[in-house]
Amino acid sequence: MMAHIRFLSMFFGCLVALLVGCAGEVDSSSAGNTGATFSASEFTGGVFQLSVLSVDDSCLDGSLQLLFMPDGNLQPYQLANPTEFPAASELPSPFVVRLEAPFSTLPMELTGVDGNRLFVAEAQQSDVMLGVAGTGECTADMTFFVSLTVSSDDELALATSVILDGFDHPDCPAVQSTPCEVVLDMRGARQ
Questions:
Q1: 3-state DSSP call for residue 87?
Q2: Residue 123 lies in a domain
Q3: Domain that holds residue 173
Q4: 83-85/93-97 β-pairing
Q5: For the whole prediction, is pTM greater than 0.70?
Q6: Which residues of 29-57 are buried (b: 16+ CB within 10 A; e: fewer)?
């Protein structure tokens, strides 16, 4: 009988605490979560697998999507080669993105830190063969602008803007405007 009373007392005590909002045990996974982000100045660098999640093509109405996501857009496209990023403590520092044809190796540079972002200097490639059906020998010059957000020491988010210009070959289709832009949503995961 005494155990039954003790149980009822604990049950009603917990019920009252819930209704009144009395502080009890706090889930430590949500305690103190104020939306703080990882500081990019703590980024240790390392080898990351980069993937393209989506392509927004304002150059050729979506025709360039297969250039940046050759397997289609139903799943993330992993770049064939991992990329080694320098640590924030080593900045400014160069790094290389090894791309597949029709691209060539893309030298880049991390230049600085601000909050959870790493600054990346623009990079360029000339005469990239577009390989879009019906464009034959059409090439374009590309300038890459990357906004790199460090989600954690093991996760990166890259918003990549690719500015295309120099559609000079007769096989090139008419573009909406020159230069034009393709935006890539990318992620990186530590290997």
A1: coil
A2: yes
A3: 40-190
A4: unpaired
A5: yes
A6: eeeeeeeeebebbebebbebebbbeebeb
Per-residue confidence band for 74, with pLDDT thresholds at 50, 70 and 90: confident
pLDDT of 33 > 60? The answer is: no
Annotate 7-39 with DSSP letters as a single string.
HHHHHHHHHHHHHHT------TTTTT-------
- What is the total count of domains within the chain? 1
Q: How many other C-beta atoms lie within 10 A of the C-beta of residue 159?
A: 13
**One-letter identity of residue 171:** D
Mean pLDDT, to the nearest integer, of 86-108?
92
Please, are residues 103 and 95 in contact by the beta-carbon 8 Å criterion?
Answer: no
- DSSP at 43: -
The pLDDT tens digits of the residues spanning 101-127 come to 888 899 999 999 999 999 999 999 998
- In a domain? residue 80: yes
